[in-house]
Amino acid sequence: MNENIKMSKFAHITKVHPCFNEKIHDKVGRVHLPVAPKCNIACKFCRRSLGKEACEHRPGVSLTILKPEDVEEYLKRVLKEIPNIKVVGIAGPGDSLFNKETFETLEIIDEKFPDLIKCLSTNGLLLNKYYKKLADLNVKTVTVTVNAINPEILKDIVEWVYYNKKIHHNVEGAKILIENQIDGIKKAFDEGLVIKINTVLIPEINMNHVVEIAKELKDYAYIQNIIPLIPLYKMKNMRPPTCEELKRVREECEKYIPQFRACGQCRADSVGLIKERKILEEFFKEKNMEQNKNLDVFELKHFSH
Ligand SMILES: C[S@@+](CC[C@H](N)C(=O)[O-])C[C@H]1O[C@@H](n2cnc3c(N)ncnc32)[C@H](O)[C@@H]1O
Ligand code: SF4
Ligand code: SF4
């Protein structure tokens, strides 16, 4: 579809969604409801953490798992205390579509808070099964994480895929995931859902391949969000991309899909404005401050009481 037609067709949604529109990232808030703990695939970089000890700001982390029956009260509190929340999303901490609580929660929101835009993120394994149900529940935006479209590459990112009551390892699992993702994305797009593609950039594995994802999905994705690897779990010894690499890959992919560059890599229980964690970065940029990467943070000599 022509880029301008695609943009204007979805403008009523994307104009008010902070994760589909960088310009309003600092003005419109979102709330993630951590109702979906289980996952049906095993990404080698994903470490889910729950509880008070889990204080990191990254995907897969949540203070607690919220039960659908608590959602109404929690949302009422959020809307009262935080102004300008327009979007309610389900981003795990596991996979949204693999937890029945997701659908129960979406029903509650649709009935009690019809004005909020409903959004979710998924690995896409079950998207071709549930896209219609999502549209019927008035979900408007779906983020699908696609890290490779070649099974030989994806097999090094995803350890196994649980599908049709069986665990599929290696290339076999990767093939099932890729086929379902692409099929689900096309069907969800035809159903009128606005699609964002998340792609984790893992320099040692998919850096030269990410542009192929953009080429393959250019007609269906509204925007692509390429996020740097946070080295964890079985990828804890791998390096994240440099800023220069991230910039280069985003520029390459921008030829095919518009790029989103303001992702805060939020927790599964984030609430409020995404910019809150971005203030220092903006200050740094505005002041054109020099990078102090040569500073030895372990140097103690120059400070004395
Ligand atoms: C925790 S997942 C939840 C939604 C769904 N399961 C998925 O994978 O799309 C949310 C996003 O965080 C990303 N993510 C998880 N762990 C990460 C890591 N260590 N580094 C970078 N991105 C990560 C996922 O790839 C996904 O795009
Ligand atoms: S699909 Fe999402 S929740 Fe599941 S392992 Fe991968 S990143 Fe983690
Ligand atoms: S993780 Fe990125 S896309 Fe999702 S709510 Fe946060 S900023 Fe938006």
Structural account:
- With 305 residues, the protein is of the alpha/beta class.
- The chain has one domain (3-286): Aldolase class I (TIM Barrel), CATH 3.20.20.70.
- The chain is built from 11 helices and 12 strands.
- Strands 11-10-7-6-5-1-12 form a 7-stranded mixed sheet.
- β8 (158-163) and β9 (166-169) form a beta hairpin.
- α3 packs across α4 and α9 packs parallel to α10.
- The N and C termini lie far apart (65 Å).
- The mean pLDDT is 87.
- One iron/sulfur cluster (SF4) is lined by residues 39, 41-43, 46, 60, 92, 94-95, 123.
- One iron/sulfur cluster is lined by residues 39, 41-43, 46, 60, 92, 94-95, 123.
pLDDT averaged over residues: 87
Give the strand order of the largest sheet, numbering strands 1, 2, ... along the chain.
11-10-7-6-5-1-12
Compressed to H and E, one letter per element, the order equals HHEEEEHEHEHEHEEHEHHEHEH
Largest beta-sheet details: 7 strands, mixed
Count of all domains: 1
Ends apart, CA distance between termini:
65 Å
Class per helix and strand makeup: alpha/beta
| Named CATH topology | TIM Barrel
Number of helices: 11
In a nutshell, what does this entry contain?
The protein is α/β, with parallel strands linked by helices. It has eleven helices and twelve strands.
